[in-house]
């Protein structure tokens, strides 16, 4: 909630409940006033990339082969070794769209990109 909405809520509470003091309402509302200001700064991106939660590997499978994936920390990708596909991870969120994945060669060790 925005600060203005919380202030209006606090004002309304005080007008209906004369027994509440402003201090008691502020003690309840104050933690929400500074809560996650990223909603206000939606157009501004942080330079810090979010880490991938490795515990998700327990649930994630390749959308094409339905086989388990391996996390490659060096390239920040989820690898399907059977098909030779690498799914990118951006801001800690795996992009599991097959068209956005890149092909990797198994034998030669060199990588090909399917993106332009």
From TrEMBL:
InterPro entries: Trm112-like. This is Protein preY, mitochondrial. PANTHER family: PROTEIN PREY, MITOCHONDRIAL, ZGC:162634. It comes from Electrophorus voltai. Coiled coil: none annotated. Belongs to the PREY family. It is found in: Mitochondrion. It holds the Pfam family Trm112p.
